[in-house]
Amino acid sequence: MGQAGCKGLYQSLFDYKTEKYVIAKNKKVGLLYRLLQVSILTYLVVWVFLVKKCYQDTDTSLQSSIITKVKGVTFTNTSELGERLWDVADYVIPPQGENVFFVITNLVVTPNQRQETCAESASVPDALCYEDNDCPPGEPVAAGNGVRTGRCMREGSAQKGTCEIFAWCPVETRSRPTKPLLGEAKDFTVYIKNFIRFPKFNFSKTNVLDTKDRTFLKSCKFSPENPYCPIFRLGSVVSWTGSNFQEIAVQGGVIGIQIEWDCDLDKAPSECYPRYYFNRLDNRFSGNSISSGYNFRFAKYYRDAAGVEFRTLFKAYGIRFDVMVNGKGSFFCDLVLIYFIKKSHFYRDKKYEEVRDLEVLAQTAESSQQAWPRTLGLAEQPEVQDEGGAQKENGCVCGQLLQPASIAG
Where are the disulfide bridges (predicted)? Predict the structure, then answer.
């Protein structure tokens, strides 16, 4: 590079460049440009602001608590159990009420089981045998009820039998009733109480109507027109999933109850109410599918006069209810406080803190002390409640803060 080139490069370091605009007097180009501007503006106003409401702050960290309580009684008369009255202590598991609870609708009962030897059930494939060597002693029967003793037990002259086992005998019967034992459970009711809170906005609410009428919960039933009544009839919940109660009561099933809180907190707290969705979660498309239904076993233990333990085994079929809660709360508050209300400069100064040197800070502190008596008139904003038990505390209540400005305007 020559001397002249180096000199030109050096001088260019001190050049200042500015933009130059050329105005094209062309109607087609101008019209296309304005249409593009209008399209962008329409997208921002309609989609971004009105539809998506992107001007709002959103809180998805929902805090929730669920309390459930089932009510209802029914009477049965069976050969295994005799005459029996069933209440919530008999058919609801767990009894204390959680977001997952189970209601018994059908039972297979095996009474008076004792620990002794007996033949394994013929419905267990691993228990089939032709001779004693097929039943090695001490080995458990896969998917069976006990431990082999080493004997193959056959009835009469039959060539094939089942292994003798040490177990709770007699072993469980495999037949399932075709008619549900507690078919009347369709008229039982469940009380689902849900507390929610959006911590970012300090907003809380419940799905129960805030009323002093003590008879409200005893007389109301949930419906889409009455979302603040948390009393649900079990038969109605099952029908809302598209299932038949008597069918699901025979072999059991799993029902999901979803409570969704999608709250626009710019509106009145009464506009934030729960929406309920009901779904069948187990395989409902084939009644004979091995993946459909729901059951489990439990036993009640006793001792006879000689102190020997025995038990009654229950294989319980029923409906498991899973209550799930989700939601989000959105709020316009910061944008309104900082820019649009009458005293926005006051809230803006509180939100944003300036860092200055020590001399300026000292002067500011002195002036603040002189102005202190004039600030004693500021009062806290009271909290707001609605009929659904909602609360907005004074940390961020747009409705109250906007009111003076709207009157003045």
Answer: 118-169, 129-152, 135-163, 220-229, 263-272
Tell whether 238 is covered by a domain: yes
Between 370 and 93, the more confident residue is: 93
Average predicted confidence (pLDDT) for the chain: 80
Q: Is the peptide bond before 274 cis (omega within 30 degrees of 0)?
A: no
Instruction: Please answer whether residues 24 and 31 qualify as being in contact, where contact means their C-beta atoms are separated by less than 8 angstroms.
Output: no
261 and 346 share one domain: no
Binding residues: 69-71, 189, 295-297, 315
Structure tokens at 239: 């029908």
> In total, how many domains does the chain have?
4
Q: Is 185 left (phi over 0), alpha (psi -120 to 50) or beta?
A: alpha
In a domain, 116, yes or no: no
pLDDT value of position 154: 93
Report if residue 301 sits inside a domain: no
Strands 74-78 and 82-86: antiparallel
pLDDT of residue 78: 87
Q: What is the pTM of this model?
A: 0.69
Q: What is the pLDDT of residue 397?
A: 40
Residue 49 domain boundaries: 28-59
Residues flagged as binding site for ATP: 69-71, 189, 295-297, 315
